[in-house]
Amino acid sequence: xxxxxxxxxxxxxxxxxxxxxxxxxxxxxxxxxxxxxxxxxxxxxxxxxxxxxxxxxxxxxxxxxxxxxxxxxxxxxxxxxxxxxxxxxxxxxxxxxxxxxxxxxxxxxxxxxxxxxxxxxxxxxxxxxxxxxxxxxxxxxxxxxxxxxxxxxxxxxxxxxxxxxxxxxxxxxxxxxxxxxxxxxxxxxxxxxxxxxxxxxxxxxxxxxxxxxxxxxxxxxxxxxxxxxxxxxxxxxxxxxxxxxxxxxxxxxxxxxxxxxxxxxxx
Amino acid sequence: xxxxxxxxxxxxxxxxxxxxxxxxxxxxxxxxxxxxxxxxxxxxxxxxxxxxxxxxxxxxxxxxxxxxxxxxxxxxxxxxxxxxxxxxxxxxxxxxxxxxxxxxxxxxxxxxxxxxxxxxxxxxxxxxxxxxxxxxxxxxxxxxxxxxxxxxxxxxxxxxxxxxxxxxxxxxxxxxxxxxxxxxxxxxxxxxxxxxxxxxxxxxxxxxxxxxxxxxxxxxxxxxxxxxxxxxxxxxxxxxxxxxxxxxxxxxxxxxxxxxxxxxxxxxxxxxxxxxxxxxxxxxxxxxxxxxxxxxxxxxxxxxxxxxxxxxxxxxxxxxxxxxxxxxxxxxxxxxxxxxxxxxxxxxxxxxxxxxxxxxxxxxxxxxxxxxxxxxxxxxxxxxxxxxxxxxxxxxxxxxxxxxxxxxxxxxxxxxxxxxxxxxxxxxxxxxxxxxxxxxxxxxxxxxxxxxxxxxxxxxxxxxxxxxxxxxxxxxxxxxxxxxxxxxxxxxxxxxxxxxxxxxxxxxxxxxxxxxxxxxxxxxxxxxxxxxxxxxxxxxxxxxxxxxxxxxxxxxxxxxxxxxxxxxxxxxxxxxxxxxxxxxxxxxxxxxxxxxxxxxxxxxxxxxxxxxxxxxxx
Lengths: 267, 618
Known about the structure:
Distance between the termini of chain B: 71 Å
Number of strands of chain A: 0
Largest sheet of chain B: 7 strands, mixed
Oligomer: heterodimer
Shape of chain A: globular
Largest interface: A-B, 79 and 62 residues
Helix content of chain A: over 70%
Radius of gyration of chain A: 22 Å
Largest sheet of chain A: none
Order of helices and strands of chain A: HHHHHHHHH
Structural class of chain A: mainly alpha
């Protein structure tokens, strides 16, 4: 399986997922963004926002957010419920020889298993968050060198937290790939995922995450550097960058699919 | 009372000799050198029983114009005794998110006085039904104006779970409002005594305190004043003695888990007591206090004590957090996540500066914080936030998605539209009103004054008030007088008082000939004569792009601008001087054909929402 071919095969689903995110983000932010936009159109004429403009926008946001929070939470929950299906769809679309109906049916058939994986991920993330919490709470008592050096402990805790989160996220992705390539139960998929987890995978996952973050950061930088640029130019640029971040993520998925295939053959 | 260490001083010995036989006039009690009331307190902490065995020897002067035939004592620990106390009835047993899980209380076991033969037998605590936080003691022999009396008490303090400044939580002990203290005697001869409401408890005379403590040898003590003794005591205890002169109260904390960080600000020693392992935070807080004490000392008058103690309680002792006592303040609690949590770090800075400001308002300028809480909380809130702005600048004053938001503007968020006056007694507010009315609105009012007439002038006015009433007991009329002197006669009545009472300082843009004459001018108008007093600016940008900043002077309630057709945009108060205008949406206007407003904010919202979804989903 060539990586390029996998990317090409999944291009449609990559676009679909990116589009879904864009639509959902719009739904999440639209009521607030709409109110802010209306306030700006009526009253803001400075190219850079001043203290008076800030007071106006803060007033609008303070009045809107309490009403919008429940709706936003519902959209987020809907997205969380859809995510296991989308992940399977994306992974399976990279494999050869699929037809749309079959792809949808397969992804749908594995939905419950994928949902189980997601719940395991949630649980594992909570456990992973405990590690830095315990270090911060008890580190100074357990390790004499940490006594009186809470900044050092904090650095260790951040490192430990990131490391744990990276391991859980990577193992979850590998488990998803295992599910897409034949595992029948969430527990077996997790077991396979953990079995495949190694330093190269952690490194690639970190690189993939950092690249996506860099692309998003570039989008933020555009907004800072050119605050007065036409909205469609800015949004367009940001969407291109976000799409590139999705492609980076797809690249990571191709790698773990290769892994899953190799291991499936060995097993 | 077994185990009680009674402080034997020349004072108490003298008082015992001075006691009169029944029916005879009371022999004179000698006046102390300082001329101030004297409290010699001793306390032995028994951590396992959460018990303090204490004694107090008080020498007190009748400073009123009338003879005094009764004494009023505060027994504030009885607020936590049972469900019948005023405090529990008012707050339902919880305050600032902390609930009372274990009761406590104070019991006077012995009382002697130079002016009463058996004062405890004639003492009453039922002055408010069900509440035992005040004790009225009848004297056998009236105390003439200017004369002194002595009062000796032995008491037993059972510590409740930590809340509202006092209590014990595992090995952390906070002792605030812990001893029997005489209420403030007013000039007219009556005691300004109140049941413990939980929101205000400091109104008291200035006195000299001599505090002797006995704690287990492995405990660290945080107490204010000069330490004059630190020596081992029998039974694995340690004895420490502190002297704090000219203060309205004395409080202390003790714990096994505290470490001390020391710094100096000139002659003033700064000591920060933080949980072990939090030394970097303690050092940062010590530096903040160094800076703050220098700034406030030079502006409001020197800090009067030799030491300033800051206690950063552990999270489990949150009920002790955010409180002020003379020479000792309690900051924001330290949690396991504090080192990583930027919001917690910011809270530490803001709370410490607020409590530092209280060293002046109301620990030195000792206003009646029960009846006029705005004089301490309102002033301290502005001073604290203003110092935070000065010291941290952009570290606390952020641009969120490109929108510049400062602490004052941020504190407006959530301010209810209908709010009672900020000039009411503390216990008349509902819990949800207290913060906005006593902290936020006064801070916004003072910041508005600072922005309209200059910050140095406001500092100078507050300095005039603080210096004039240092070690005094000013009221609202003294604050009004200080502002009338600092600005102009009538300033308080025109600006400060209406602002604190919640008057509308609204402004708005309106079209003079709306719907009829497109060429008619745009008007900037004020909602009332009250609002007309603020000197503001109005900005207008002509169609050509030329910007004009027009001064809108005090007294003028209308300002005529260019016709809308000739304008690209107009804004009242673009610098946001007036923080008392509760509706900003009618203060700015933009022409339809003006260049489009910036969209970066909306694009950023969309970008980060998508990034969040990417992190959460496939």
